[in-house]
Amino acid sequence: MPPATTPEIEIRADPGEVADAAVEKIVAAANDALRERGRFRIALAGGSTPERTYHQLATPEQSARIDWTRTELWFGDERLVPHDDERSNFALLQRSLLCNVAIPPENIFPVATDRGSAAACAEEYANRLAEQFHLTRPGPPPRFDLILLGLGEDGHTASLFPGQPSLQETTAWTVGCPPGALPPAVDRVSLTFPVLNAARAVLFLVTGKQKAAIVHKVLRESPSVTEIPAAGVQPSHGTVTWLMDRAAAERY
Ligand code: 6PG
Predict the structure, then answer these.
(1) Is residue 251 assigned to a domain?
(2) What does the buried/exposed string (b/e) look like for 138-152 if buried means 16 or more CB atoms within 10 Å of the residue's CB?
(3) Which CATH number characterizes residue 16's domain?
(4) Which residues' Cβ are closer than 6 Å to ligand 1?
(5) In whole angstroms, what is the distance from residue 185 CA to residue 116 CA?
(6) 184 Cα nearest atom in ligand 1
(7) Confidence of residue 4 (pLDDT cuts 50, 70, 90)
């Protein structure tokens, strides 16, 4: 087993500064990827925390710093609701970023949520990953340049929830998940640890006092992955950065 990745910890004064720093990291990752590989592939986080970052990235000044014609936007996870449902991560991205940047529609890869079951939607997403990354399944997972992740108060990340079978997945790239303990109580589709841990870089965005306890657990107590799935994010050949505000890092 490769050595655990030592996480980089970066603390900023408030959520606004976290968003500013996140934009800088996204732009840097994009330009490195475009320079080295001619393409930037990012998997985006859902939930509420990253919305500020997406709005900031969508400003004329910041969005001009990325070549969107060579950028692909993927999703780390999705709720099994229609794309126009306010709980949808695609809807979050649509209203915060996509409505303001000139990214070709073919460069946006939403998770299809109308294939019936979560498992069927997960299978469809894995097929799209294989096609776009020119990979065969089963096989080595797609390697994202950057994956944004959030942290739930129960220690989940993406839609990998405590105690669920998805945590044991070592081959599939995507998985259908039943609802976790936290809302919204809907089925999900999530990237799995093989994909998260193949990333060149993972960036956790965590803000708010309500996350202080779980941040302490993840970063100071070496919990089991079953108990705290976020602890399982350890890219074998990549970096992990925890970008937090002071409130979330209060007990770090
Ligand atoms: C989701 C997210 C999820 C989120 C955490 C934190 O679809 O819900 O991918 O993993 O990142 O639940 O959510 P908040 O940022 O809203 O606290």
Answers:
(1) no
(2) eeebbebbbbbbbbb
(3) 3.40.50.1360
(4) 45-49, 76-77, 79, 89, 150-152, 156-159
(5) 17
(6) 8
(7) low
The per-residue pLDDT for range 47-59, each reduced to its tens digit, is 999 999 999 999 9
> Residues 242, 10: contact at Cβ < 8 Å?
yes
- Other Cβ atoms closer than 10 A to 103: 18
What's the pTM?
0.97
pLDDT tens column, 123-157: 999 999 999 999 999 999 999 999 999 999 999 99
Cβ neighbours for 17, distance < 8 A, ≥ 6 positions apart: 245
In total, the chain counts a number of residues equal to: 252
Give the domain extent around 47.
8-245
Pocket test for ligand 1, best of 53, 96, 159 (most atoms within 8 A of CB): 159
The mean pLDDT value for 4-18 works out to 93
- For residue 183, how far is its CA from the centre of ligand 1 (angstroms)? 10
Can you tell me the distance from the alpha carbon of 6 to that of 219, in angstroms, rounded to the nearest whole number?
10
* Count of structural domains within the chain: 1
